[in-house]
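$ ./design --mode recover --in tokens.txt
reading tokens...
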């Protein structure tokens, strides 16, 4: 998108067109790009929004849509700096890391997290569920409380009546300067997943300073003993099928977005730069006009080969 827009910008800038015309053309192309990008992002990542009937912060258990949920294990009841963490490398080369413990008393005192964490932000008494830290060149470069244990809630999504994912949404943390941060852990439910669980993150999600941590794990049983005995297989989709479906929608979004950019940008370019009129504003109009005939001819050719009959081109 950036490359296409850059080419179009340079072409328009070198033309004798007015600033208003260039602005209008770029607005159309940018609109197509933003729409496509937003659609794809919405498909890829979405926080669960159905509130569970109950949630116990201490045990990591809940009742969601009448189903008993237990995700205590993924919330790190026994905290470890090496396992209760997820990192990503930022575009500027810094390492951003989230440390978390989603059950009381929360994260340990500041010194146990990173050397530049403040004892005021991370008291020994706990209360913080998620810490956001940075390192640059292997040295500490920032430490912030990102979410609280208090006011934690659970939300869910279901497929064909079966719980497919749950979100543990931690309480908003407000620091001494009034800055707000919050975070959540989204669990893709899979009875076959086993500890140690693999966490991932895309950083900010939904709005700035809302941090997402993702994991695939069982949503019943786990840290507080066995969950309810599994029932007979239902009509829901397996995790592999769900992943394939999600990938399919991403490809659909990318295809539609690319198509919008191609036709929209091409239309504006031919209209404003080439002075095309009517159907000539459509990019490669001759090709698209001949495409139905080419498809029909292809079917005729294939039929002739299968039936061993004589083929005559249209």
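writing sequence...
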């Amino acid at each position: 998108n950036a490359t296409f827009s850059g080419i179009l910008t340079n072409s328009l800038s070198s033309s004798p067109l007015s600033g208003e015309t260039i602005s209008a053309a770029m607005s159309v192309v940018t609109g197509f790009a933003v729409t496509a990008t937003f659609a794809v992002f919405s498909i890829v990542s979405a926080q669960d929004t159905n509130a569970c009937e109950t949630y116990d912060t201490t045990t990591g258990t809940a009742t969601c849509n009448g189903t008993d949920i237990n995700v205590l294990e993924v919330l790190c009841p026994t905290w470890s700096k090496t396992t209760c963490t997820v990192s990503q490398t930022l575009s500027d080369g810094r390492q951003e890391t989230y440390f978390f413990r989603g059950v009381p008393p929360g994260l340990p005192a500041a010194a146990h997290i990173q050397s530049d964490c403040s004892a005021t932000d991370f008291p020994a008494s706990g209360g913080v569920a998620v810490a956001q830290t940075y390192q640059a060149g292997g040295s500490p470069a920032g430490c912030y409380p990102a979410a609280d244990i208090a006011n934690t809630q659970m939300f869910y999504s279901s497929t064909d009546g079966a719980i497919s994912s749950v979100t543990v949404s931690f309480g908003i943390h407000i620091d001494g300067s009034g800055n707000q941060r919050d975070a959540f852990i989204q669990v893709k439910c899979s009875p076959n997943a086993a500890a140690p669980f693999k966490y991932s993150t895309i950083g900010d999600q939904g709005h700035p300073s809302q941090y997402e941590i993702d994991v695939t794990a069982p949503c019943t049983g786990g840290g507080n003993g066995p969950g309810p005995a599994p029932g007979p297989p239902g009509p829901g989709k397996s995790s592999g099928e769900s992943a394939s479906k999600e990938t399919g929608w991403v490809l659909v979004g990318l295809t539609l977005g690319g198509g919008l950019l191609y036709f929209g940008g091409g239309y504006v370019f031919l209209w404003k730069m080439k002075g095309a009129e009517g159907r000539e504003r459509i990019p490669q109009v001759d090709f698209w006009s001949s495409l139905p005939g080419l498809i029909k001819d292809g079917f005729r050719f294939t039929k002739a080969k299968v039936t061993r009959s004589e083929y005559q081109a249209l």
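exit 0
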